[in-house]
User: Which sequence fits this backbone?
């Protein structure tokens, strides 16, 4: 199946470069580009892409607000694309809020071309993607935050012991294959558990699962 992508960035050369790179892939179709968040939201509403590559810092409307509008649309709008945030800096202040808004991950703009192509495919498949340096900052941010929210901790009670184990390992950054090895399970069984965790906790993807695990107190930085 072809992955439909739009590119939202205020730099024309960046848009053109990313579009040329992605359009050269047989399984990716670039269906449009926009120069700011407001245009990006409008373009997404018209073209219904699978993945939106969204720059963080833009005029008119920044990537964070645009991501919020795409991932929490008004009544009557049913399309919700995956959003992959693009940033020049791995210490961008928007990392945490963008993930809470439902973004599927962050990628640094200076990442190798192969990483960008892979990121689009990973996010389109429903996985989360974070650059290692972004993950380290995210965990450090959690370490400085107040105690977990009680209502989130209570929601953990709806998970089975195995599902709780899987959630904890997701939060520690393990892949499906690594979780399978850790728990001595088939990888397909791990995928089934992850699907149930996301459904029970009303989470969109692994990125939100990581945030939930830290906010609920299931996992704490430094353990």
Assistant:
């Amino acid at each position: 199946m072809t992955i439909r992508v739009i590119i939202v960035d205020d730099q024309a050369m960046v848009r053109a470069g990313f579009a040329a790179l992605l359009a050269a892939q047989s399984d990716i179709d670039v269906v449009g580009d926009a120069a700011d968040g407001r245009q990006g939201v409008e373009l997404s509403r018209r073209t219904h892409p699978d993945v939106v590559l969204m720059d963080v810092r833009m005029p008119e409307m920044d990537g964070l607000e645009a991501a919020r509008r795409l991932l929490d649309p008004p009544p009557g709008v049913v399309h919700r694309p995956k959003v992959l945030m693009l940033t020049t800096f791995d210490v961008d202040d928007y990392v945490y809020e963008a993930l809470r808004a439902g973004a599927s991950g962050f990628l640094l703009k200076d990442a190798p071309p192969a990483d960008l192509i892979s990121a689009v495919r990973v996010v389109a498949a429903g996985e989360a993607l974070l650059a290692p340096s972004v993950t380290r900052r995210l965990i450090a941010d959690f370490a400085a935050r107040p105690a977990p929210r009680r209502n989130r901790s209570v929601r953990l009670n709806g998970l089975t012991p195995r599902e709780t184990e899987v959630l904890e390992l997701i939060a520690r950054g393990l892949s499906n294959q690594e979780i399978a090895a850790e728990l001595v399970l088939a990888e397909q069984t791990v995928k089934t558990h992850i699907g149930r965790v996301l459904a029970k906790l009303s989470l969109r993807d692994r990125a939100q699962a990581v945030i939930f695990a830290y906010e609920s107190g299931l996992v704490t930085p430094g353990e």
